[in-house]
Amino acid sequence: MSDRTALLGSEFGEEERELSVWSTLWTAVSRIRRDPGLVVPFFFAGVVVTIVDYLRLRDSVPVSVVDRMGGGGIDITYLIYPTGSRTTTTPFGALVDLTVAPLLTTVGLELTAFLAVGVAGWLTLSRALGNRTKSARLFPYLGLLALLHVAFRLLGLVGTIGGPVGLLLFVGTLAVFVRVFLVPVLVVAGDDISAAFGRSARLTRGYRWTVFGLVLVVGLGTFALGSVSLVGPLLSATLVAPVHAVALVVVAERIEKAEGTERAERTNQPERTDRRAGFRSDT
Amino acid sequence: MVPDTPSRRGYLSALGAAGIAAVGVRSAGGVDDGAAARGNSSLTDWPMPRYDAAGTGYVPHARGPGETVESVWKHDPEDLSSTFSPPIFADDRLYLVSNSVAALDAFDGETLFTYDGSSQSNPAIVPVDAYTSDTLALAGAEGLIGLNADGGHSVLGRRFGMRRWRQNGESPDSFILGPPTISPPVAVGSTLYWADSRTDILYAVDASSGRTYWERELGRENYGGEPGRPAYLDGIVYVSYYANGAAAFDAETGEMLWETEVTDQLVLPVTATEEAILVPGREGVTALDPENGDERWRFDHGGNQTEGAVAVADVSAGDDSSGKTVYVVGRVYDDDPDTPNSRLYAVDVETGEQQWSAPGDWREKAPVVGDDVVYATEFDTIAAFDAETGELFWRFEVDSPLSTPIVSGGMLFCTSFETVQALGPGGAR
């Protein structure tokens, strides 16, 4: 059996479907049901994040408590990379003029939560990719998460903007989310971080409504489960993040397959390998 | 800005001279005056509205200008909109609230930093162990917030790290005519006690993290609570609320210890003393037993007070009484436009008996006491009285309405519309 058929899921007995929101999610859930080990990393990440939130809610350094249900609205909790929700965030101003012990404690706890989510994402994506990932991709993946983390914090400094400008920013942010949807899986599969952004934008072209739907489902799912009192971070990490991670792999496979088929039809030649991402096999 | 602003060295030198001169005529020079005389800047802080958590408005060891007065500086800080709220004083800085928050150098009035926000209460300075700088707590449209009292850090002209936390309390109801004036927090150690006059909830809050220790709803069913500034003494938090309620809570647990109604139409913020819990109202002052809230005495001035607070000072002259005196302003109705429309009363805290009174058009009804001098503000005039005898030392007129002053280092600081004023001993410069 070739790697290609394995990538397309026939190895798992899946019926090939065209790329849609529900077929992607169904395939992701099916793979997780056949390989429950895909859930384990994010379950432990959820436990770690829950403990970190618990400790941060009780120490002497301020936190912002994310009140998902208090505002009466809904939220799209989407951070590009697979992750659960957090109950607390640390305002930038809370770190200024901290004495050494609270500063080290705060940084240590936040770093622990960051590493738990990062390692869980790397493990889950690697396992879902099977033998198509390269070793030592953990650090580039953590680098990507750090970059995104900083970017979101800088965006947070802008504050909440309402009115037409806020709506435009919201739509623009969603458009960016769609274009960079595949970046996490591309980085774990072997792309450089900078190359992954360009490649993700290219690969998602023509599939953006489907990817937009996946962003909404993942974002709303993380919001809904993350809103459950006390165990929200654990629930969202265990139930949504693994689906997000496997869905990234499924989407990447199907887009690559569709592109490969198109190329083959145009050139009447067998499709070629994209060794960089490892989503195609040699024929 | 007044062009003749004194230098820090000259200012301190002047304070030193005033302090030394004053020691010669008074029985005891306090820490505050001693610090000024040595020429260092460790002046007595006025860390919250009404000086202390009990709300006495009395700073025992800090002297005001004394028996003579003149303007030392006045300043128009940028972004300071109209305000008649008194400043607070800590670490040689004055903090003012007029929607935005401004920190000024107390020696020359120069603006050190500002915080733009929708702040409506006076602030309180709170030392916190987790930080190298204090927390400046105040209430506004966002609820209770904690700021970096040093102003955070300035990068490329923009301040970062100014706000530390927002209390995770109940969101305030919107009010079509804008938010009402909000009661200020009081600080005890690193704990803040704050009565939200919009939600009628009394909070105990960690000043380091902004975390709520406990909260208790105030008022009765079908009544708005509209609580005023709480007062703290010996592990108990006292608060008054609309229309004529007063209650005591265990500061540690929030357990209600007692609740009562006083004989008045409307109550104003309380002041706590060992002898009595003083509840000023529209027509007088009620003294309650701290143990159970029973009425001990009542002083009726017959006026129509709708704002303000009382000051309580220990001006004992060695007799058998506690020596504590309550200073309260009452309005007087008189058709004669030339007759002052209010009086400043001095009342014995143990008996409620009047000791002296002084007529005046006291605009701000919250006198303060520094050392043995009572300061009260009329529309655009501030007056100083001997706290024991009621003898008038001086009246000083400025060109716009004045806030209640605060006392520190031989100085009085007050706001006046869009101006901050510093008054010092006459002939000091």
From TrEMBL, chain A:
Residues 259-283 are annotated as: Disordered. Keywords: Membrane, Transmembrane, Transmembrane helix. Signal peptide: none annotated. The chain crosses the membrane at residues 38-57, 100-126, 138-161, 167-189, 209-228, 234-252. This is Glycerophosphoryl diester phosphodiesterase membrane domain-containing protein. It comes from Haloprofundus marisrubri.
From TrEMBL, chain B:
InterPro entries: PQQ_b-propeller_rpt, PQQ_rpt_dom, Quinoprotein_ADH-like_sf, TAT_signal, WD40/YVTN_repeat-like_dom_sf. Transmembrane segments: none annotated. Coiled coil: none annotated. Residues 71-153, 158-330, 341-416 form the Pyrrolo-quinoline quinone repeat domain. This is Pyrrolo-quinoline quinone repeat domain-containing protein. It comes from Haloprofundus marisrubri. The lineage of its organism: Archaea, Methanobacteriati, Methanobacteriota, Stenosarchaea group, Halobacteria.
